[in-house]
Amino acid sequence: MVTTRRTQQERRAQAEAALLNAAAELVVEHGVRSLTLARVGEQAGYSRGIVTHHFGSKQALIERLARATQAGFVPGLADLPPGLDRFLRLVDGYIGASGSAGTMNRAFLLLWSEAATASELAPIFRERDEAFRSDLRTDVAAGIADGDVRTDADPDDVAIAVLGQLRGIGLQHLLDPRAVDTARLRRTVTDHWRRALRVP
Predict the structure, then answer these.
(1) Cβ burial, residue 23 (10 Å; 0-12/13-18/19+)
(2) What's the DSSP call for residue 7?
(3) Whose CA, among 33, 72, 110, 129, lies 20 to 30 Å from 116?
(4) Which H or E run contains 163?
(5) Cα-Cα-Cα-Cα dihedral of 182, 185, 190, 196, to 10°?
(6) Is 149 helix (H, G, I), strand (E, B) or coil?
(7) Is the distance from CB of 167 to CB of 73 less than 8 angstroms?
(8) Is 51 exposed, middle or buried (0-12, 13-18, 19+ CB in 10 A)?
(9) How far apart are CA 98 and CA 146, in angstroms?
């Protein structure tokens, strides 16, 4: 039996993934205040020194976790050109993914909700929200340029409204999954934005 040794880069990536998963588990189980480098290391089966080596500080760990929890939340969008189709697929996919959100996604929503009152989280999540709004604005503006979206649709207003709606649905599902039927809701919300934005 032949075994191949992992490269240093592969071992580093595996350790980082394990540490981020451990951090997400702690956030979901005990809240962000439970998050210390020592507890993350213990949860992942590593020493605190490894956590410090990878991230340097709790703040850097949270920043990396915020990015990791959002990465690939709605797969397949990167290959689509900006416009109404990508916008609607994002709305549909986000709500669908909220219905089966794993630990990383739940951790993101919990961290996001705490950012309103936690000064160490606020800058991170302001930046993540602005990146999301920027993608939405780009899609709406491209849709206007393509002639698919009404010219009186304001990309900034639409981006703010959609971000609030999607995050709000995710939080509601997190708090009471039985009350939020994401399979039905994704069609309802996607159809709403299709009718609201599409040129008649």
Answers:
(1) buried
(2) P
(3) 72
(4) helix 155-175
(5) -150
(6) strand
(7) no
(8) buried
(9) 30
Look up tokens 């009718």; give the residue: 195
Percentage of the chain surpassing pLDDT 70?
A: 94
4: left (phi over 0), alpha (psi -120 to 50) or beta: beta
Tokens standing for 42? 């213990």
CA distances from 83 to 20, 33, 36, 119, 135 (A): 33, 40, 42, 35, 10
In angstroms, the CA 75 to CA 144 distance is 24
Question: Residue 144 has what pLDDT?
Answer: 98
Task: Answer yes or no: is pLDDT of 1 > 60.
Answer: no
Amino acid at residue number 23: A
Beta bridge partners of 149: 198
Residue 3 has pLDDT above 70, yes or no: no
